[in-house]
Amino acid sequence: MDEQQDFDQFLHWLDSDRERAGQRYERIRRKLTTIYAAKGADSPEDLTDRCIERVIEKKPWAIAEGATPEFYTLSVARFIYLEWLREPRSVQLDDQPIPESKQSEVEEHYACLERCLGKITDRNRMLVLEYYRYSKMAKITRRAALARELGIGPNALRLRAHRIRKELEKCIRQCILSNERIK
Amino acid sequence: MKNPIHTNGEIVEYLLGRLPPERADEIEEQIMMDDDFHQEVEIAEEDLLDRYVHNELTAEDHHCVETIFSRSPVRRQALQSAVALRRKIDSTEPVPLRSPRFSPYPYAVAASILLAAYLGVANFQTAKQLKQSESYVSFLAKELENARQRNSSTSQGLSSQDPIMVAKLSPRKRTGGSRIQLPNGIRAVQFVLKVPSGFHGEGSVKLLADPDQLITTVPSVFPQDVGDQHVVVATFPVEVFRTGNYRLLLVGKELNSFTSEYSFGIQ
């Protein structure tokens, strides 16, 4: 059986509906990346790839274990992390200086953000800029005013701002990737 | 999971890698099993980055964020995006928001105008929808009559001599449905749904857009034999379709009777 067939079976294990399976797969990937990042992995995305590959290799759908895909994947994720800890790598000392962001990188991010802000609606652009504008006490009062202005509750505003920010971050990542391809 | 309640402070400690391993394990489990909790963790991470760019963190936390977020390329990008967003915000003027203290009179007048406008539009829309529904019902009746005539005149069943597309569907398989491309100029799609030979009597066919949004129902269909196949025919005007996934649900009229599902996608 080839890799594509294995992957198709994996998706079918997540959901018999292909579209819903794809969405669940993306959620699992994001969760794994969050977990590996919090564990201090230097490349959470690589460990996420490795974990998914291992799960597909193990074919858990063929074994009637009754574990949900998320639970099974988490147990594999922990195992992969232990393997990664045992791998030889250059040691980073705590007092080692943190690499400064290059000015070109900063400018590139800013240019990409500008481009991505141009792709969202005026209303969403206003929302994201106003939501993240203030700090401390001003943040609380201004966000309450923003929620009133938009006619939604504070929690709905919080989730909406989060979704727009995620959308922007994804757009920025794609923008930077396409810049790298051109280089 | 021993204790699934996590405070925001605990989530921040988790993100900074400062939680005891057994507590971190519990948070990981909740992240994997609960989508809403994962969203809370992502929001907590954004808040942490915002407090970092606003210089609101203690020196220790500030250093911790720099160390952790410079370690992986994607997290470094998230940090740089937060810095870029801060710079963009600083370069734009704040939008003046309504003051919470306001006189209700102008708003009441504006609300009355809006309400009147809304009622006018709603009335117009309702009349328009009613007209559309009437023409749709007469269209379906005409198509049904055409389908019956065609079925009785040919042994092979339905053909596409006129601008109606015929799509033959079998009950839903777990792997997904057929993909249908609608040619230009057709007026309707006629679905020939294979049914088991044991299905008799009256039924209805519901057209649903994924996920489970009912578009319309053909209220009365009867199984018929076309060639060697037992089928039900249902016709829908082409206007009801957009690009996307759909399901047809064939439901027998009698209680606990036959139900069959057909899935397809419009390209």
Describe the structure.
The complex is a heterodimer of chains A (183) and B (267). Chain A is built from eight helices and no strands. The two termini of chain B are 45 Å apart. Chain B has 267 residues and is an alpha+beta fold. In chain B, strand 4 and strand 5 form a beta hairpin. In chain B, the strands form two sheets. In chain B, strands 2-9-8-4-5 form a five-stranded mixed β-sheet, with no helix packed on it. Chain B has a four-stranded mixed β-sheet with strand order 1-3-7-6. Chain B is built from six helices and nine strands; from the N terminus they run ααααααβββββββββ. About 4% of the residues of chain B have low confidence. Chains A and B meet through helix 2, helix 4, helix 5, helix 6 and helix 7 of A and helix 2, helix 3, helix 4 and helix 5 of B.
Number of DSSP strands of chain B?
A: 9
Share in β-strands of chain A: under 5%
- First-last Cα distance of chain B: 45 Å
Helical proportion of chain B, percent range: 40-55%
Helix content of chain A: over 70%
Low confidence ranges of chain B: 152-161
Shape of chain B: elongated
Extended strand count of chain A = 0
Determine the structural class of chain B based on helices, strands and strand pairing.
alpha+beta
Measured by DSSP, the beta-strand proportion of chain B falls in: 15-25%
| Main pleated-sheet profile of chain B | 5 strands, mixed
Please give the alpha-carbon distance between the first and last residues of chain A.
Answer: 38 Å
Most extensive interface between two protein chains, with residue counts: A-B, 62 and 53 residues
The helix-strand sequence of chain B is HHHHHHEEEEEEEEE
Tally of helical segments of chain B: 6
Could you give the order of strands across the largest sheet of chain B?
A: 2-9-8-4-5
> Which structural class do you get from the secondary structure elements of chain A?
mainly alpha
- Quickly count the helices of chain A: 8
User: What characteristic shape of chain A results from the CA principal axes?
Assistant: globular
Q: Could you name the ranges of chain A where pLDDT drops below 50 across 5 or more consecutive residues?
A: none
- Describe the oligomeric state of these chains in a short phrase: heterodimer
